[in-house]
Amino acid sequence: VRRGDLDGVRLLVTAGGTREPIDPVRYLGNRSSGRQGVAVAAAAADRGAKVVLLAANVDESVLAGVRDRGAVRVVPIGTAAELEAAAHAAASGAEAVIMAAAVADYRVAEVAEHKIRKEDTAGEAPTLTLVENPDILVGLVRGRRPGQVIVGFAAETVAAESDADDELLERGRRKLARKGVDLLAVNAVGWTEGFESDANRLYVLDADGRVAGEASGSKREVADRLLDAVRDELRALSH
Ligand code: C5P
């Protein structure tokens, strides 16, 4: 049904999680595997899009899903600063941006030039001073070209109760307002759902906070549902 509905559309997708160095051998990271972003890139390519995939520390085994697709250009990324620079460079040539990467909110203020050794800290536990990273998504929204569709992700942990989805959507709507994106993909993460598993559950909110799509299933199914909303948004903006 969807084959070719994104023909020739240029898409920027970010995936994975940034790593912020502490010293030459250590970093602050997160548990994002990159699977959801990679699934979006693969699904988009299958539907005719040309994709730049900024892959932040994504395992080669996960990237295997797009390596054989000529329509996906994979750019490896390490830190939030690298992701920001690459995202701004690639965004100008994209009709839509899908920001699925988990970006570290903070980085280490002063990265140690040499490995921090226990012997050198005289029995005192060292203190890490952190500084805030820029919000890449907000920067992209500010600099967006006319007609460009920008999609953010909100990965939230919620209690496994019956009103968990309401809480999820409520938090999503607040995030939507803060970020100024056209679409926000809201999903529940936890120890069993989200980050490292293949299954996912997701709502797509439009700029007015309405549910524009809903999906649950494999990350591929979720990716296709999200891309439906992006396609509809692109069509609406071009009319
Ligand atoms: O505020 P929060 O981190 O939950 O927002 C998630 C969304 O914002 C994701 O799309 C993520 O890629 C993006 N983000 C960003 N730069 C940051 C933090 C988050 O682009 N520093």
Structure, briefly:
With 239 residues, this protein is of the alpha/beta class. The protein has helices spanning 35-46, 60-67, 80-91, 136-142, 164-179, 219-237, and strands at 10-16, 20-23, 26-28, 50-56, 72-77, 96-99, 106-108, 130-132, 149-156, 183-188, 199-206, 211-218.
Describe the structure in your own words.
This protein is α/β, with parallel strands linked by helices and 239 residues long. Helix content is 31%, strand content 28%. Strands 5-4-1-6-9-10-11-12 form an eight-stranded mixed beta sheet, sandwiched between helices. It has a two-stranded antiparallel ribbon with strand order 2-3. Strands 7-8 form a two-stranded antiparallel ribbon. The two termini are 22 Å apart. The chain binds cytidine-5'-monophosphate.
